[in-house]
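All the exercises in this workshop are built on plain-text protein records. An example says more than a description, so a record of this kind follows:
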Amino acid sequence: MNIIKLALVGAAVVYGVNYLTKKREDGTSILDDLTDNGPDWLNDAKQFATQTVDNLKQNFNDKQS
């Protein structure tokens, strides 16, 4: 039974890698988009997290007062 699970997980990984690296009409892939835009998305996520934490801190301090 474990060999079947391993085969299914392996097939899913191969399909995922194939999907991510498949070239589109413009010659780029999803992986190219992730590597090119990843740092920008990470900075946006950090900004969002910082704003959310600041809002939570302010709400907590307002309720404490």
